[in-house]
Design a protein that fits this description.
By secondary structure, this protein is α+β, with helices and mostly antiparallel strands. It has 21 helices and ten strands.
């Protein structure tokens, strides 16, 4: 036992020593990392100061500065360094997941387009009319997929190697050139070719780790060349009849301005700053073209998905989406997301992304105090984002229910289900509110204070709003009216399309939409024609002339309304002798329409049949007659005078 103890104690001491050695190594590496980080900050600071000075001399002075290098030496060192970076980038374990996501995106997007294309071809005989509405995704699925993958892949990596990002950018430019060849105006395609050549040289120049005089000359010549091409496109744009991408003129003017600044800085010896501005302007213009194609390709792919879903035998979620609505609303969201990604790329090209991230992180996490309450803008931002996502989810749920109700006939049970959507939306808002509070780290005691303050506000000026909110909850539970019901309220009639939290929407017969506060649906008299069923009684007043055979008239009316298939048997139709008016005998006919939306057409058909049958049987329908007597006082006096003259002997 003692030997085992000694052996265990010896092993423990050795392990402790190893742990101490590892701790020392970790400490050394930490100190080294801090030292390297300080050196990087110092280099950046030195570069910032030197970039604003005449660091390389005026360009007409030639290669006189000692801080310029030989071209062959710069190329060799750059090649060796970027080869090592490429190798390390691909074999690094930290990049395995981004590699997998990039490859998966490439394969999945291509399979998505091809599968939808095949499905449309198989299920729709008129597939050409669908495919002709697209330009890129159907005709060039591989190039479209390659463009999308090359644009999005760099964002999956944490500080990807510059040589890798530039490679993907050039592949993207080559892909979009093949895509736009037959669809963009010829002047713009020629500008793309010039920009592609410029981008190749600029990316190679940005990878150089040493400055050479020949590099300055080449970049100066290329900047002048691309400025000339941009000005040419601007001149042709003023007289062009073809359709150009939006904001082309403004983008080209900004690009010319930046390239002109790059030329001037290069001439003045501020070559580092000139290269930074010129490369950034060129690469971000290329990326802007790529993002424009990216939005078009993505919308075309969604269009194919929706068309394939509509033709599928079994309905899925895409069959409930209207592409026009999606294009109007979702495209705006995509454009805003693309704008954010483009700004991120701009910050990376300007090498200020880390600075912006650190400053934003400090601003969001810095504690602030309001009275005795401490908060950070990060928690406020999280709260707002979660509330916004809750509202978005509630609107999506409401949209799918509304679209399904428009496409299918609603039974009373289906109406109750659709009317319950208000409760679902309220539940989503409440759950989202509490999740937002928890995620933002807001104490519950502060929430109760806020709710108490809201209670005071409600007591003073928010009675109507709260009344409508509470009325909406009452409508959701009691269901006196439901989505799809035909009602009359405030002298207006129509179909309820939506019961919201505060108000409801009623679609009137003339096509207008009436917004009714929920409080009015509770406090006012509401006529609901379809609460229990969709039946409606139709009443007709039929007038016949005096002298008509009333028994025969009654038999004709009963025969007409009892022999029609679109009139309900139960309740049974009825005919009554209603009234003896001044000029006619009145009959009243009652019958029921099974569907309230068709009662007007049914009424019209019955009246037409009655008129035709009365004409055949010789039964007269009296016309209203009126006697009008005109009294002229002067004319009456002359007539009386003539009469008195004739009566004299």
């Amino acid at each position: 036992m003692e030997k085992k103890w000694d052996k265990l104690d010896s092993c423990t001491e050795k392990s402790i020593i190893k742990i101490g050695v590892l701790e020392n190594r970790v400490s050394s590496l930490s100190i080294l990392m801090i030292d390297v980080d300080d050196r990087i900050d110092l280099k950046i600071h030195e570069f910032t100061i030197k970039a604003l000075t005449n660091e390389y001399g005026f360009i007409w002075e030639g290669n006189k500065k000692e801080n310029t290098s030989r071209p062959d030496s710069a190329v060799v060192k750059t090649y060796k360094l970027n080869t090592r970076l490429y190798r390390y980038f691909f074999i690094s374990k930290s990049n395995y997941w981004p590699h997998f996501v990039s490859v998966f995106l490439l394969i999945a997007f291509l399979v998505w387009i091809v599968t939808n294309k095949q499905k449309i071809t198989r299920l729709n005989g008129n597939d050409e009319s669908i495919f002709n509405q697209t330009h890129y995704a159907v005709k060039y699925p591989l190039l479209s997929t390659l463009t999308v993958a090359c644009i999005l892949s760099p964002y999956f990596y944490d500080h990807p190697a510059q040589v890798f990002s530039h490679t993907l950018l050039l592949v993207m430019m080559a892909s979009i050139g093949l895509l736009i060849k037959n669809y963009w105006p010829k002047p713009l395609f020629r500008f793309w070719a010039a920009l592609f050549i410029t981008a190749i040289v600029f990316t190679l120049s940005s990878l150089l780790i040493l400055i050479t005089y020949i590099d300055r000359i080449i970049l100066l010549a290329l900047s002048v060349f691309i400025i000339y091409q941009s000005v040419t496109v601007l001149k042709q744009l003023k007289t062009a009849t073809e359709v150009y991408p939006p904001y082309t003129e403004a983008i080209l003017k900004l690009f010319i301005t930046l390239q002109s600044a790059s030329v001037l800085l290069n001439l003045a010896g501020r070559f580092s700053l000139a290269k930074l501005i010129g490369v950034t302007a060129t690469l971000n213009l290329c990326l802007a073209m790529g993002f424009y194609l990216f939005v078009q390709i993505l919308m075309e792919s969604l269009f194919l998905q929706l068309e394939a879903g509509k033709n599928a035998e079994s309905k899925n979620i895409t069959s409930y989406i209207d592409f026009k609505i999606l294009q109007k609303k979702f495209k705006d969201i995509i454009i805003k997301a693309v704008a954010i990604l483009w700004l991120v790329a701009l910050a990376k090209n300007l090498t200020i992304d880390d600075y912006i991230y650190d400053e934003a992180n400090d601003f969001l996490n810095h504690p602030y105090k309001f009275s005795s309450t401490a908060f950070t803008f990060r928690s406020v931002l999280i709260f707002i984002v979660i509330i916004w996502l809750s509202g978005l989810l509630a609107r999506l749920i409401s949209y799918f229910y509304d679209y399904e109700g428009q496409e299918t006939k609603l039974t009373p049970q289906a109406k109750k289900t659709r009317s319950s959507i208000l409760l679902i939306r309220l539940a989503v808002f409440v759950v989202g509110f509490f999740i937002a509070i928890t995620a933002a780290g807001i104490p519950m005691d502060r929430v109760t204070i806020i709710l108490g303050a809201l209670g005071v506000g409600i007591g003073f000026g928010l009675q109507n709003i709260v009344n409508n909110l509470v009325s909406g909850i009452i409508l959701a539970f009691e269901k006196p009216v439901q989505v799809g019901d035909i009602i009359e309220v405030s002298g207006k009639s129509g179909t309820i399309k939506e019961i919201g939290i505060r108000s409801s929407k009623i679609e009137c017969g003339d096509g207008s939409e009436l917004i009714v506060p929920n409080g009015d649906l509770i406090s006012q008299h509401v006529v609901n024609w379809t609460l229990n069923n969709n039946n409606r009684r139709v009443e007709l007043i039929i007038r016949v002339a005096y002298g008509s055979d009333v028994v025969k008239v009654e038999e004709i009316l009963k025969a007409i309304i009892t022999n029609r298939e679109d009139i309900m048997d139960i309740p049974s139709p009825s005919v009554f002798l209603n009234n003896f008016s001044d000029s006619a005998i009145e009959f009243r006919a009652w019958f029921w329409a099974a569907e309230i939306t068709r009662y007007l057409s049914l009424k019209s058909g019955v009246m037409r049949e009655i008129y035709t049958e009365f004409a055949k049987q010789g039964i007269e329908i009296p016309q209203s007659q009126k006697e009008i007597q005109l009294l002229y006082p002067g004319l009456n006096r002359e007539a009386n005078a003539v009469e008195s003259t004739q009566n004299k002997p």
